[in-house]
Amino acid sequence: MKDYLIFLAQSHPQFRKAELESLADLNGIQVDFSNHNIEHPFLLVKLNNDEEAFKLIDRAILAKGIYELWGVGNSFDELHYNIKNNNNLNNLKEPFINSTFKFENLTFQGGKKSRDEQIKIFDNFSYLSFNGKIKMKNPDQIFTILEKYSLGNDLFPLDKPDKLYFGRQINLSARSKGIVEKYDIKKRPYFGTTSFDAELSLFTSNIAQVKKGDLIYDPFVGTGSFLVSSAEFGGITIGSDIEFLTLKGKGPNKRIKDNFDYYKDPLNYIDTLCMDFTNNAFRKNLIFGAIICDPPYGVREGVKVCGSNDENKIGRENILIDGKLAYLRRDYIQPKKMYSLDLLLDDLLQFSSERLEIGSRLCFWMPVANDEDIPTMIPQHKELELIYELVQDFYKWSRRLLVYVKRDKNYNGTTIKSENREGVNNFRERYFHKFSKASKVQ
Amino acid sequence: MKFLTTNFVKCAVKSCDGSEGSFPLKYENCQLQLEEQDFNPEFIVSMLERLDWNAIIQVASDLGNNLLPSQKPEDIDGNSEMLKDLHSLLIETQIIDGEMVCRNCKHVYYIKNSIASFLLPPHLAK
Asked: Residues A231, A271: contact at Cβ < 8 Å?
């Protein structure tokens, strides 16, 4: 085993470990992440080889890069001392002694250094005495000095770093290669007010372990954010939504399909269908590699299904128009009624338990008011193991990414259906009543 | 709606579950359009494993194509002609307008603007 250093992104630190664990599991890599500290930008891990390190970080969204570790210190003097006294230094150096190379300096919370200051730092590593040529563009190897600065009482970084690492770059993450900017919602031909942001869509597809050739389903597809993020990782995607107009898009070149053409992966898009999830039209033996969604109990859309509670409307489907029953006509508009979020979640878990490949994941986002008893609100199904409950906190509410793994018939997990859940998740109503106590129902 | 998608969808009415007539649906009065896409043989080979071949034959026949082999093609990695034909049928053939009828309950679903709608009237939505 060798020591590697992961430089983490300073974004959603509470989600970083789950992403790395999911990517390790996806690539069959055994690794201990127990050192992870959400306050700390660096994570030391032990891995078998560079190939594992490369794969672990390659498509990460919440990590920046991974480095073969040559030395650590609390000051530059200590760092140099530790590198020089690393018993393994010759073995680490030997394969690269004639490679072209460059040095690089990355900091956490540090100020920008001038080129001269950087060169001064690099020159102090001359004792490594590489024979290869220095090459600024596409060198064979990049050696990186990573520094962590703490902030002083004035909130400006202190003059000297308090932790330093030196290592050889193995791989930079998808994030460092610009994937989050690539998927920026506003750059897409088609997006809407409910489009899920690029960074967390891509992250969700990682947590869902989307891989090449997997059939990925989003039952509340909207403008298709999870479809494009899953296609990026090779998923073959299909979606459905009850809103026909959303699927139709904003014009001939502003549809979900056009986003796939824009990202140059049209083969990864199968279709989007207009469907009430609770009356699902997918054939029962169609098996999915992941189900990913942000159900529409959010702020802008309530939960709706086909049907009507309006006495005046019931029966209208059977009126004869031009000798044809209304509901069989092309221009018939199916009425929709409000549906309970809790029942919808029961349906989602049941559907996932029937349609997911064993070992595959259901990932969905659920918002809740922070004054609710949240643990009692999380649905569970006996064939789905709840493995993550990742919390993104807002002021009076939070959004959770719930992640379940489909297990086989022998697995006997917990069942918590809506009738067993103590709280009622009426998030939407509470949002509009500013989460007042009075709006809390039991 | 791609031709491929016809292989994934059945009648949405719950009481039709398990009845033979609910899959595949019967495709009537369909307007087709060929939308060119890059040919990827590997994609077709892997997709073929997921397909219900009898349903492919049936829907192709609804749409006027009776030229498909009666058995799912096997070991076609090298058969580029067959792969191209399947690419053209499954991926490039779009149903832009038409009707899908359940052979069991006779409910009619419509395809409009290339989007298939499975929304149900109140008496069928349970």
From this structure: no
Segment A127-165, tens digit of pLDDT: 999 999 999 999 999 999 999 999 999 988 899 999 999
Query: Taking residues A304-319, what's their average pLDDT?
Result: 86
Percentage with pLDDT > 70 across chain A = 98
pTM for the complete prediction? 0.95
Q: Which residues of chain B from 27 to 86 reach within 8 Å of chain A, CB to CB?
A: 37-38, 40, 43, 46-47, 50, 52
Mean pLDDT of A417-423: 80
State the average pLDDT over residues B75-101: 95
**Residue B80: how many CB atoms within 10 A of its CB?**
12
Q: Is residue B39 part of a domain?
A: yes
| Chain A residues within 8 A of B123 when measuring between CB atoms | 317-318, 327
Mean pLDDT of chain A: 93
Which residue among A282, A306, A314 sits closest to B8, beta carbon to beta carbon?
A282
Q: Considering just the CA atoms, what is the radius of gyration of chain A in Å?
A: 26
Q: Is A61 left (phi over 0), alpha (psi -120 to 50) or beta?
A: alpha
Domain CATH for B28? 2.20.25.10
And the tokens for A254?
A: 């502003």
CA angle A255, A235, A188 (to 5 degrees): 30
Superfamily of domain A179-300+340-439: Vaccinia Virus protein VP39 (3.40.50.150)
Per-domain residue ranges of chain A: 2-172, 179-300+340-439, 304-338
| Euclidean distance between CA atoms A286 and A279, whole angstroms | 15
Please tell me what DSSP assigns to residue A111: P
Instruction: Flag whether B122 is in a domain.
Output: no
Does B52 map to a domain?
A: yes
- pLDDT at residue A301, rounded to an integer: 66
Chain length of chain A: 442
Q: Is A266 on the interface with B (CB under 8 A)?
A: yes
Range of the domain at B105: 4-116
Cα Dmax for chain A: 93
**Is residue A369 predicted with pLDDT exceeding 90?**
no
Report ipTM for this prediction.
0.97
CA distance A419 to A361: 24
CATH class of the region A2-172: alpha beta
What is the residue whose two structure tokens read 């709280």?
A: A423
Three-class SS of residue A240? strand
A35: CB partners within 8 A, 6+ apart: A43, A44, A45
* Position A260 pLDDT exceeds 60: yes
Domain count, chain B: 1
CB-based contact, A271 to chain B, within 8 Å: yes
